[in-house]
Amino acid sequence: MTDPLPRLTDSEKITINLGPVDLGRIDLLVQEGYYSNRSDFIRTAIRNQLAAEGAAVQQSVARHTLELGLRDLARAELEQIRAAGEVLHLRVLGLVRIAPDVSADLARAAIGSITVLGTLQAPPAIRAALKDRIR
Fold first, then answer.
1. Which residues form a coiled coil (predicted)?
2. Residue 11 confidence (pLDDT)
């Protein structure tokens, strides 16, 4: 039996440290109704900064030949790669999901390296099998 994938969420939890003055200013904006809560303010600020740096992100994606978005790795695709004697080297900005029916042996045979700037969702057995190949 394969391990189930973790429940897919549309966000990741992060922790940040803020000084009391910055936090107070955020709380004031929340209190005044500009934002529904602290998280709403922080998400909005991050989105605005990412939009402002959009050209730099796109240039970096192109320079590093990163795939952008969601990359699903299904058993059939990995079996084809293995049968062709090829090895997959993935670089993804976003989310990589490895299907729960992929065996650890198949993953090791078909995946040479995997770099994810974002989130990797894979069963624990796959993570363990690829631990020296995940960056």
1. none
2. 79
